[in-house]
What we know:
By secondary structure, the chain is mainly β. It contains no helices and eleven strands. Strand 5 (about 45-50) and strand 6 (about 60) form a beta hairpin. The N and C termini lie far apart (about 40 Å). The relative contact order is 0.31.
Amino acid sequence: QVQLVESGGGLVQAGGSLRLTCAASGRTFSTSAMGWFRQAPGKEREFVAAISWSAGNTYYANSVKGRFTISRDNAKNTVYLQMNSLKPEDTAVYYCALQGGYRRSYYSGSSYDYWGQGTQVTVSS
């Protein structure tokens, strides 16, 4: 079984930065693609970023490209989301997710098998 625990959320002013951390337990982390999603109040969950198991490939939503960076440390079973130049529209609960096997898509939430509990990010204007 895999457990994912996010941390690092909080309140920040527009233009500021936060780094989210997702700590994973379980033996499959180092061979699993990981993703970050977010859900704002009244909106559907949306893809933010993803990273392949080897960290050789990264993927971003257009809305965060150039501002957010996803990375991972397989030795620590941890994935990170560095968020810079934050905007009020980035306010949401952020979730990390893990793919339990090969999936065709990094962008769809249905391609992920395990989810964390989420961490709140609030960006004030």
